[in-house]
Design brief:
mainly alpha; two-stranded antiparallel sheet; 55 helices; elongated
Length: 1293
């Protein structure tokens, strides 16, 4: 319970004065009492507190200010009371300064508080309450937060539950946005004292709200209101929570709480600002401005003032009072913290209204920095950047809008803005963006696409050249405007005018100028001041070459706007097109004056005027130099304003070229072309440079590429340039063709006609000067001259100003007349030359026809001769067949049956010799002679066909071998030279000394060409051959050479052969002399002493042997050479002789020089051994003369005897047949080799393949061979002579 009075002790007595505290008397009265009685300081402090609690601030201050000098301080705790008095008075001044609105007064209060705190520091510096009070004062000053934080930390280090220190620390952390830390200190203050003031709960609620825990925030605000129902902060906090909930009831409750707070403290700035925000959404802008103004005047906190200014600014903004809005937006941005971006957003909008896009972009960039994903800000910034001249900004705008469309694909405005940005760079992407926006409207909003979007889509299609689709969209947009015109007539009427103008531009691009004119005039009828329609009508007239009418349209536009740069530009271009340089220059100078030298196009045009003056013929070098400098100055001025202006750079290149700096000009043009390939002027100028450098091919190619890329071969000016390039290149015909093409495009252009006449004159002159020109060419040249003369005469009489010199045209006409006067001479000369050439051609045709007739006659003669020879050959063949029908047919001795080894033969039928008609005697006896003859003829025809095929193959092999041998001879020229002779029947002294020698096949030596190693090379392979292989080779050479005794038959056959060779052109080997043998066709070692069955190649032999079911014999055979293979008609009837020993050595390529150092004794022994082997082989070959296949020898003994009896009956000599069968049987056992047989038909004289038996002989057969070998020697000799006798008798018969 509080005391109602206080006792004031009297000086020097024990009496006291009882002073009632409620109410206290005046301060002056109490002050006099306290001074008189010298009252202690703590009573002064108590009375001051009671005055403060009663609101008597003057008396409170009066006591505290006088207590230091008048109060008694002679007690123990007087220093603490002194500090307390100073701190209390300082806190009072701090509170006054916080409430003071006047800055000067506030500063005075703060200065007094600072002085008092300083005096207190001198008494007790580290007192906790003193430090806390001083720290709160530092927080209020604002710029001493760190000092306050240090003092709070010092106090909390000593007392963690100090309420004031915790609250001060929490405020510091809250301002640093460390809401969790601030909440912790508030909780510590609450734990230290359950009866904490409501401000602790208020601070906790604010922390919970910032942390997003609105439920606990609401509980904290409600608890604070319970503790202090007049806490405006708690009321405002609860009101904000209710207003942000979105619930209608809570919204009403929130407004009531704000009204309650306003009733408690009508000067509270936060309450005023929130009430202003509430009335803004109710569109009660007067209350908004009233409340915001009071809030602004009632606080010095900049954050609150920034919000008050923002409320004022946006209220004025909605009332379209943009100046006041701009003022308060700007003032708000000055007070606002960096995170408060709403004033910057509004200020940016005001800058856009003032068309200050740079500052507007800066404002929105600040907003985007704080809120990087704000779609509205990105859309506005994208729109601002799109209007910038900086390419980086435009690219950034594209990026921002693409980001918006990605984050919010349903944002129609973003798609439309993106399409507007892309329309200047990527038409396809812009069209896609517009179509997306139209699709969203149709599908999501379910409305018709607005005409603005349809118009933009059509504009994109127009730029892409899709005129049909463009027309459809324009018509759809116009229909929409007509249908909805009643709803919004003003706006839709304006949109209709724009769409109509664009539609007229479309008709103009479609070359429907009549429709375009009607639409332009219709727009002008409703809107006479539509300037662009006048300009487009003037352009249509200009394109029709109606210069006067075009000028009138442009002047009509100038009547509407005297300073319209487009109209003056078009008029200036009209003057320049007519080469009126002065008037054109004046028009562009006017534009420059009105735009303060900022119109780059006009400056560039004046530079081009001075450049054109350089092309005019003049002899004044000073003027030419002046023109060059002026043109260069204007082009440089354009580059200073726009460093990327390609046209100015192109102009500088032109000036350099005129000055003669061709290389530098080419570099400039090349750089411009690298920068942009869509500028036709730089292509043309580069081609001009190539002409100056005499690179005519490159110039022609450049002109053609430019003509194709930009003008679709429809530009007359470039065609003239191209014609000039061909002319200087000397291609007059191509020049004429191009000029004719240009004349078809512009028949009214006399310059083209002049150039064409000039080229015709040159063509005619060239043709007439050429003495080899034909009559047609000369006549055509004369016609061209006549045409050129007429053209030049007409051009020289032109009255209007022309692009050529009239005197030059007259001079050319006279020159054409002079040439035409000489035309008769040239025509006569050409006619004479033409007659001579015609006569020569007739003679050539006649000679050609005679040669052709002669060739045909010769071919017919050769054909008849060939047919006659063929018929003679066939007749001769029949004769040979009859003569050789029964030659060398031997009876067959049956052999003992053998046990077959190895695989079974494919054909088990018995094989017969060619001399037998059939293997079946009964069937053979039943056939009559006519049937046999018929079958023989058929067989002969089949063999003849086969033989002809083989002959063709042999001829091809001969040619290949000839070429190969020629190549080898060139590589190994002079390696070996040997001579081969054919000796008598037995030159090695065999037993048959009485046999008559057979005529030599070749008596002259035959030179052999170098042979390939690996076949018969005497120095390699022959020396390495095994005895068995040598014996087989020797047997092949000796076959039938010693067994022939019928020299008459052979001589007759040889004569017939020679005769046949003469008819067929085949040369016998015996007729070939040493000189007749070509080097490349020489036989390889083996001379042409071939046995009858060796006419085919080894490959054919092996194939025949395989067909007969036998196995091939491994023999060392000579590779068939082209010269050794003679036609079958000859080679089949030639019987070779046994060569002598010397010849045999020469054939095998072995001479005394190639014995590799053998001694003479050893050589003789080898020679004797070889002679002995040769004798044995001769006898063996004679006994094996039958050509029965190997498969026939394996027949049973009974069948062999029956065949022998049939053979003996035919031959009439049974004893001879037995002898021959025995000898043949022995030979088969020795070598298992079949001898060749001879058929009655020459076609059957095909060589048979010799095969080597791969079956091993049984032990019994080997023993029988050894026992019989000694007995068979004498029998062989006898049988050989008998065989020869039988052959002689048969041939004579």
């Amino acid at each position: 319970m509080k005391a109602k009075s206080i006792d004031i002790p009297l000086r020097d007595t024990d009496e006291v004065i009882a002073l009632d505290l409620d109410p206290l008397p005046e301060g002056e009265e109490i002050l006099s009492i306290l001074r008189t009685e010298n009252v202690p300081l703590h009573i002064w402090l108590t009375l001051a507190k009671h005055y403060y609690s009663q609101g008597k601030m003057h008396d409170f201050v009066l006591l505290l200010e006088n207590c230091h000098k008048d109060a008694a301080t002679n007690y123990r705790e007087q220093e603490k009371d002194k500090m307390l008095a100073l701190d209390t008075l300082a806190a009072h001044y701090v509170g006054l300064g916080r409430k003071e609105k006047n800055k000067e007064a506030r500063k005075k209060h703060f200065a007094k508080a600072t002085s008092l705190y300083t005096q207190a520091d001198k008494i007790i510096m580290y007192d906790q309450n003193h430090l806390v009070g001083r720290a709160h004062f530092c927080l209020l000053e604002g710029d001493k937060t760190d000092q306050a934080d240090a003092q709070f930390n010092f106090v909390l280090a000593k007392s963690e539950k100090h309420i004031a220190a915790n609250m001060g620390k929490a405020c510091i952390l809250f301002n640093k946005k460390d809401y969790k830390g601030a909440l912790g200190h508030f909780k510590k203050a609450l734990k230290g004292n359950d009866n904490c003031p409501a401000s602790v709960r208020l601070g906790m609620g604010l922390c919970f709200y910032r942390l997003g825990n609105t439920d606990k925030a609401q509980m904290a605000f409600e608890r604070a209101l319970e503790l202090d129902p007049r806490s405006t902060g708690s009321l405002i906090g609860l009101a904000i929570l209710h207003l942000n909930s979105g619930d209608k009831d809570k919204l009403i409750k929130g407004v009531k709480l704000l009204s309650e707070a306003y009733g408690i403290d009508s000067a509270n700035s936060m309450t005023l600002n929130h009430l202003a925000n509430h009335f803004f959404f109710k569109k009660d802008y007067q209350k908004v401005q009233h409340l915001a103004q009071h809030s602004l005047q009632g606080t010095e906190v900049e954050v609150i003032r920034a919000e008050s200014c923002y409320q004022l600014a946006r209220s004025y903004h909605n009332q379209q009072k943009y100046d006041q809005a701009f003022q308060y937006y700007y003032q708000s941005t000055q007070f606002a913290s960096p995170s408060y971006v709403l004033p910057h957003f509004g200020l940016g909008q005001m800058y856009i209204f003032r068309e200050d896009y740079a500052n507007a972009a800066l404002c929105f960039e600040k907003v985007l920095k704080i809120q990087p994903n704000n779609n509205e800000t990105m859309k506005i910034l994208g729109s601002l950047y799109s209007q910038s001249d900086d390419s980086d900004k435009r690219e950034q705008a594209k990026t921002l809008l693409q980001k918006v469309t990605t984050q919010c694909p349903e944002d129609i405005e973003a798609w439309i803005e993106l399409g507007g940005i892309l329309q200047n760079s990527d038409i396809d992407a812009a069209l896609k963006a517009y179509n997306t926006a139209a699709k969203i409207i149709r599908e999501n909003i379910h409305e018709d696409v607005p005409p603005e979007i349809l118009n933009n889509i059509a504009s994109c299609l127009f730029q892409l050249g899709k005129y049909e689709e463009c027309l459809q969209h324009y018509e759809t947009a116009l229909d929409y405007c007509k249908r909805e015109l009643q709803n919004d007539e003003a706006y839709l009427s304006a949109i209709t005018v724009t769409i109509t103008y664009n539609l007229a531009r479309l008709y103009e691009a479609l070359h429907e100028f009549g429709k375009a004119e009607d639409l332009y005039k219709a727009v002008l009828k409703e809107h006479p001041n539509y300037l662009d329609c006048y300009l487009r009508l003037g352009c249509i007239a200009r394109d029709r070459e109606q210069i006067f009418e075009a000028s009138n349209w442009f002047k009509d536009a100038l009547q509407i706007n005297q300073d319209n740069a487009d109209a003056w530009t078009l008029i200036g271009n009209l003057h320049i097109s007519k080469q009126e340089w002065g008037p054109g220059q004046k028009k562009f100078e006017r534009i420059i004056k009105t735009t303060n030298d900022k119109d780059s196009y006009s400056i560039l045009a004046i530079g081009n005027v001075w450049l054109q003056m350089l092309y005019q013929p003049t002899r004044d070098r000073d003027k030419e130099q002046k023109y060059q400098e002026r043109a260069l100055a204007f082009f440089k001025q354009v580059l200073r304003q726009d460093p990327r202006n390609m046209y100015a750079a192109n102009g500088i290149g032109c000036v350099l070229a005129v000055k003669g700096h061709i290389r530098e000009a080419r570099d400039v043009f090349a750089q411009v072309r690298e920068a942009t390939a869509e500028m036709p002027d730089v292509w043309i100028n580069l081609a001009h440079i190539y002409i100056e450098q005499k690179q005519y091919v490159s110039a022609i190619q450049m002109y053609e590429n430019c003509l194709k890329k930009f003008y679709d071969y429809q530009n007359v000016e470039i065609l003239l340039y191209l014609a000039r390039a061909h002319f200087v290149c000397g291609k007059l015909e191509e020049t004429r063709r191009i000029l004719l093409q240009a004349r078809h495009m512009a028949p009214q252009d006399n310059l083209i006609l002049f150039n064409l006449s000039y080229v015709l004159r040159h063509l005619a002159t060239t043709t007439l000067r050429d003495e080899k020109s034909g009559l047609e060419e000369v006549v055509s040249a004369v016609r061209n001259l006549e045409l050129a003369q007429r053209f030049f005469t007409m051009l020289s009489k032109a009255t209007e100003r022309q692009k050529y010199d009239l005197n030059h045209a007259a001079a050319e006409a006279r020159q054409c007349s002079d040439l035409l006067s000489q035309a008769q001479y040239h025509v006569a000369r050409a006619r004479k030359l033409d007659d001579e050439q015609r006569a020569i051609r007739q003679q050539q045709e006649k000679a050609k026809q005679e040669l052709e007739n002669k060739r045909r006659e010769e071919e017919e003669v050769k054909k008849r001769e060939k047919e006659e020879k063929h018929q003679a050959m066939l007749a001769q063949r029949e004769v040979y067949r009859e003569k050789a029908k029964n030659i060398l047919i031997f009876a067959e001795e049956p052999e003992m049956p053998k046990v077959p080894k190895g695989r079974k033969k494919k054909d088990d039928e018995p094989m017969y010799s060619s001399g037998e008609a059939s293997s079946d005697p009964d069937k053979d006896d039943g056939l009559n002679e006519e049937e046999k003859e018929r079958k023989k003829k058929e067989k002969a025809e089949r063999r003849l066909k086969k033989k002809q095929a083989r002959e063709e193959k042999k001829k091809a092999r001969k040619e290949r071998e000839r070429k190969r041998l020629q190549q080898e001879k060139e590589e190994k020229s002079g390696r070996y030279t040997s001579k081969a002779f054919i000796s008598d029947s037995d030159s090695d002294g065999n037993e048959d000394d009485d046999a008559e020698p057979v005529a030599k096949i070749n008596q002259s030596p035959v030179k052999t060409a170098p042979v390939s190693t690996g076949l018969l090379d005497s120095d390699s392979s022959d020396l390495d051959e095994s005895p068995r292989k040598k014996a087989a080779k020797t047997r092949k050479r000796k076959r039938f050479s010693d067994s022939e005794d019928d020299s008459d038959v052979l001589a007759e056959i040889q004569k017939d052969e020679e005769k046949a060779n003469e008819d067929t052109g085949i040369t016998k080997i015996s007729d070939i002399s040493d000189d007749d043998v070509p080097v490349n066709e020489a036989p390889v070692k083996a001379p042409p002493k071939k046995i009858i069955d060796d006419s085919a190649s080894d490959e054919d032999k092996n194939s025949d042997a395989a067909d007969e079911g036998g196995e091939g014999l491994e023999t060392e055979t000579v590779e068939p050479q082209p010269d050794a293979e003679v036609d079958m008609l000859v080679s089949e009837t030639v019987l070779e002789e046994r060569p002598s020993e010397e010849d045999d050595k020469e054939i095998s390529g072995i001479s005394d020089e190639s014995d590799f150092g053998k001694s003479s004794k050893k050589k003789k022994e080898d020679k004797k051994r070889s002679e002995t082997k040769k004798k044995k082989k001769v006898e063996s070959d004679l006994s094996d003369s039958d050509d029965e296949p190997l498969s026939d020898r394996r027949k049973s003994k009974k069948k062999s005897k029956s065949e022998d009896r049939r053979s003996r009956k035919k031959k009439g000599s049974e004893s001879d047949s037995d002898t021959k069968s025995k000898s043949r049987k022995k030979k088969k056992r020795d070598d298992s080799v079949s001898s060749p047989s001879f058929s009655s038909d020459l076609s059957d004289l095909e060589p048979k393949k010799k095969s080597k038996s791969k079956k091993k002989k049984s032990d019994k057969s080997r023993r029988s061979e050894k026992s019989k070998s000694s007995r068979s020697k004498k029998d062989k000799k006898k049988s050989s002579k008998k065989v020869i006798d039988s052959l002689s008798s048969d041939s004579s018969d």
